[in-house]
């Protein structure tokens, strides 16, 4: 055990998920259009790499990074929280996005869906 009084890690800054090249328009349509997250400007030094960054309401960020030989992730995933899961699933239906409900964490409600490139995404109800 360490004599350290402060934690070494103070929190989570951002998460990054992978996408294929030229993903930016689909990223904006999904993460801003569907999920309502604001797009954030990427630093100039990173902008040439492609991808897009989005802000979460708590100040953390979601980064979409371009990766060569992209393969969708069907196990590892982002998990986002929402205050009203019914509103999310109704909006997903209007956007033509399939949501699969899951009751394994009952009473916590959650659904699984895929981003535009087939990566798994979990949305849990709760604040």
From TrEMBL:
Residues 11-126 form the VOC domain. Pfam families: Glyoxalase_6. InterPro entries: Glyas_Bleomycin-R_OHBP_Dase, Glyoxalase_6, VOC_core. Gene3D superfamilies: 2,3-Dihydroxybiphenyl 1,2-Dioxygenase, domain 1 (3.10.180.10). This is Glyoxalase. It comes from Deinococcus puniceus.
